[in-house]
């Protein structure tokens, strides 16, 4: 396989804005995926896609043991979870519902900026298998998105993966955490320029300004960064996270008027001390999301 280019990004390319989502980032078995989508159908939660996230790492991609096996899954485990809810092949109401409501995402936890380019090459090799003289992407039919955490890959190299390595159907989410803040001197304009350099290589950014398990989400701290990103990249999807859950969604409310298409992501507040997803909390979180963004539900009912 040829190596990706070593160039450095380009201006943001205008494209259709991706659909906003309610994110749950701690799935670790098939039944959880099925239960969540069954609940979404029953409650008629249709204002956003449900982003069902599973965490992976370089080690888990290679099948090695990991420190938190319920938090970081192997490739076969991810395929098992996502293949339990397959996209209908035939056009019709079922596939329309799937496309409008389901967003299956692998959330890749990089070991850091020094190795992210090599990690993406590894991922690319692991997900492609020979089949009758051609290479087949083994997760493309099960996964709609790929999220990059704890690293800032070279924009041109990331674009190469999308354009040349059969990732064209993937939507890319770039986490903006402590590393991005440090790289841009905690400056909103600098962060926006960094994001803009990725152009059409990414579809969403995930604002995760704290990466601190004890921190409380601060809407007013996040606002100038989100505003700058929106000004530079008007058609980019924007999501926020930071210890959000059923009891803390009110902390996002100050941003709703200015960012009506804001996506949200929850993880730590939906798990117990053993890293197991608490289904009651996950469903309550979806209820709180729906109260805020579903047209048929009034925020005053929260």
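Q: What amino acid sequence fits the structure above?
A:
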């Amino acid at each position: 396989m040829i190596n990706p280019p070593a160039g450095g990004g380009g201006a943001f390319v205008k494209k259709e804005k991706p659909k906003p989502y309610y994110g749950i980032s701690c799935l670790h078995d098939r039944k959880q995926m099925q239960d969540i989508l069954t609940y979404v159908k029953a409650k008629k939660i249709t204002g956003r896609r449900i982003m069902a996230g599973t965490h992976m790492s370089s080690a888990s991609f290679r099948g090695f043991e990991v420190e938190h096996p319920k938090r970081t899954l192997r490739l076969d485990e991810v395929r098992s979870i996502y293949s339990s809810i397959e996209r209908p092949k035939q056009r019709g109401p079922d596939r329309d519902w799937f496309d409008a409501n389901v967003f299956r995402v692998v959330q890749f936890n990089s070991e850091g900026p020094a190795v992210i380019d090599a990690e993406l090459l590894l991922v690319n090799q692991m997900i492609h298998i020979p089949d009758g003289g051609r290479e087949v992407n083994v997760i493309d039919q099960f996964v709609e998105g790929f999220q990059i955490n704890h690293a800032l890959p070279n924009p041109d190299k990331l674009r190469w993966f999308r354009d040349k390595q059969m990732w064209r159907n993937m939507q890319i989410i770039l986490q903006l955490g402590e590393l991005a803040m440090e790289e841009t001197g905690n400056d909103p304009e600098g962060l926006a320029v960094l994001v803009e350099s990725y152009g059409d290589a990414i579809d969403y950014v995930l604002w995760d300004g704290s990466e601190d398990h004890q921190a409380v989400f601060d809407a007013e701290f996040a606002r100038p960064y989100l505003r700058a990103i929106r000004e530079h990249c008007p058609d980019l999807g924007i999501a926020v996270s930071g210890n959000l859950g059923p009891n803390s969604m009110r902390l996002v409310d100050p941003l709703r008027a200015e960012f009506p298409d804001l996506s949200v992501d929850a993880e730590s507040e939906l798990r117990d001390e053993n890293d197991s997803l608490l289904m009651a909390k996950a469903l309550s979180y979806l209820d709180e999301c729906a109260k805020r963004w579903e047209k048929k539900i009034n925020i005053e009912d929260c």
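Q: And what stands out in the fold?
A: DSSP finds ten helices and ten strands in the chain.
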